Amino acid sequence: MARLIVEVALKALAGGLFVLGFAVLAEMMTPKRLAGVFSAGPSVALGSLLVTAVLSGQADMRAAADGMRAGAVAFFVYCLVAPPLLSAWGVWRATLAGLVVWAVTAAGAYLLLPRP
Prior knowledge:
The protein is mainly alpha-helical. The protein folds into two domains: about 1-55; about 65-115. About 85% of the residues lie in helices and about 0% in strands. α1 (about 1-30) packs antiparallel against α2 (about 40-55) and α3 runs antiparallel to α4 (about 90-110). The two termini are about 30 Å apart. The model has no long low-confidence stretch (mean pLDDT about 80). Keywords: Membrane, Transmembrane, Transmembrane helix. This is DUF3147 family protein. InterPro entries: DUF3147.
C-alpha cells in the first residue's frame, strides 16, 4: 500500500512539473491559439509514463501508453461527432451519445492495438 501511495505522489509531482514546464513554453508561444497544444494532458501523461517506467518497468509503461493512444483516437472521433450531435439533439443527449461513441471507439482501438 505504501508503494502505491509513493507511486501516486511521484506521478502527481512529475505531472505537475511537466505542466509547469509546458505552461512556460505555451506562454512564450505566438500565436496564442497554438498554446493549447501544450496543455495539461500531454504533460501529465509524460509525468505518469516517466514514473511508471521507473517504478514498474517497460511492460507497464507500454500498457499505459497503449491506453493513452486508444483514448486519444477516441477523443479525436468524439471531437468529430460532437458538433453535429449538439446542433441536432441538444446538450444532454449529444453529450451522452458522444460519450458512448468515445467509449466504443476507445475500447475498439485498445483491442486493435498490436500486442508484443
